[in-house]
Design brief:
Elements lengths: L2 H7 L15 H5 L16 E6 L4 E3 L5 E2 L4 E12 L2 E9 L6 E7 L4 E6 L1 E3 L6 H4 L7 H6 L3 H33 L2 H28 L11 H8 L6 H15 L11 H26 L5 H13 L1
Antiparallel strand pairs: 1-4, 2-3, 2-8, 4-5, 5-6, 6-7
Length: about 300
C-alpha cells in the first residue's frame, strides 16, 4: 500500500481543495464519522454488532440460535428506567431472515425478548450440579427478623452436622492420596516404565510375524469372535474332490479305472505317433531330407 493510499485509509488525507474554513474531513465530504453504520442516524438508529446473551429459539423456523452468535442490529432508545436508558436491538436471523427484537431490562439487569424469538429454558437440579442454593428475595427480606434468622441458623447448623462425616471422610482420603508426593511420582513412573516395556515386547513380536503394526494381547472376546468366523467352502470342496479322485484312481498306470491324467497322457502319446508317421511319409516322398543327410552332402561337396 502506498503512503497516499494509507493516508486515505486512515482518513488523514486532505485534498488540495480543502481549507480549514470548511471544517473537518467528514463535513467536507458530507458523511458521518461512522459511515454506513450511521445511515439511519436521523431516525435515532445506529447499526452495531450485537451478541446474543442466551440461547433462543427462532420464531420463524424454530431453529436454535446459540449464545454468543453475533448480528448486525439496529440500536435505538425506546424509554427510560429512572435515569437509565432502555435500548432496543432489532436484527434478522441468519436461518430464515426473521426479525427479532430484544430490549434491555435495567430493573432486573437482564435482556428481554420482545418479539420474533423465544428464550430457551435450561433448568437443572442444584444437587446434581453440586452448587449452592441462593436465598430468594423473600427470604433475604425475612433475614432481618431476628426470630427467622435464629431458626435459619439452627437449620444451617443441622445441615452442617449431617454433612460433616462425609466431608471428614473425603478430607482423609484426599490427605492419604496426596500426603507423599515422592511415592505418587514413583508409582506413576513405574507404571509408565511397565507400559513402555509391554509396548516394546508387542512390537518385537509383531516384527517376528512380519507385521508392520503392533498386535494387542489376545483376549477371550477375540477368541470367541474368531471361533464363529466361517470361511468360504470352496477350498474345502476342492480338497474333498481331490481326495475322492485319489481314492478312486489306481496306483498302476495301465490298469482299469485309470484317472483323467492317464487319459491325457495316452492322448499325447497318440499325437506323437501320428507326427512321427507323417514325417516318415514325407521323407519317403522326397519332400525334405533329414538334417544329418544335408550335413553329409555339404561335407562331400567341400571335399570335391
Amino acid at each position: 500500500m502506498s503512503s497516499l493510499a494509507a493516508a486515505r485509509a486512515d482518513n488523514f488525507y486532505y485534498p488540495p481543495e480543502w481549507t480549514p474554513e470548511k471544517g473537518s474531513l467528514n463535513k467536507f465530504h458530507g458523511q458521518h464519522a461512522l459511515r454506513e453504520r450511521a445511515r439511519k442516524i436521523d431516525q435515532g438508529i445506529l447499526i452495531i454488532r450485537f451478541e446474543m446473551p442466551f440461547n433462543i429459539w427462532c420464531g420463524g423456523c424454530n431453529s436454535m440460535i446459540a449464545k454468543g452468535v453475533r448480528f448486525n442490529a439496529e440500536k435505538k432508545q425506546v424509554g427510560n428506567y429512572y435515569s437509565t436508558k432502555i435500548w432496543s436491538f432489532t436484527m434478522k436471523s441468519a436461518c430464515c431472515k426473521h426479525e427479532i427484537v430484544i430490549q434491555t431490562d435495567p430493573k432486573n439487569c437482564e435482556y428481554v425478548i420482545i418479539s420474533g424469538a423465544q428464550r430457551k429454558t435450561e433448568e437443572y437440579d442444584i444437587e446434581d450440579a453440586e452448587t449452592m442454593l441462593l436465598p430468594l428475595d423473600e427470604e433475604r427480606s425475612k433475614l432481618v427478623d431476628p426470630f427467622y434468622r435464629l431458626e435459619h441458623q439452627e437449620e444451617d447448623l443441622q445441615k452442617k452436622k449431617e454433612a460433616e462425616p462425609v466431608l471428614v471422610r473425603l478430607q482423609r482420603v484426599s490427605d492419604s492420596r496426596h500426603s507423599d508426593d515422592y511415592a505418587l511420582n514413583r508409582a506413576l513412573r513405574n507404571r509408565l516404565r511397565n507400559q513402555k516395556k509391554r509396548v516394546a515386547e508387542e512390537e518385537v513380536a509383531s516384527r517376528k510375524k512380519g507385521l508392520g503394526i503392533r498386535l494387542l494381547p489376545a483376549s477371550e472376546e477375540d477368541a470367541a469372535v474368531a471361533a464363529h468366523v466361517k470361511f468360504s467352502s470352496k477350498f474345502e470342496r476342492n480338497r474333498k474332490e481331490k481326495r475322492a479322485l485319489i481314492n478312486t484312481s489306481s496306483i498302476f498306470p495301465g490298469s482299469y479305472g485309470s484317472s483323467s491324467s492317464d487319459a491325457k497322457r495316452k492322448e499325447l502319446e497318440s499325437k506323437k505317433r501320428k507326427i512321427k508317421a507323417a514325417n516318415a511319409s514325407n521323407l519317403l516322398a522326397g519332400g525334405f531330407k533329414p538334417s544329418g543327410w544335408s550335413q553329409i552332402a555339404v561335407s562331400s561337396a567341400r571335399k570335391s
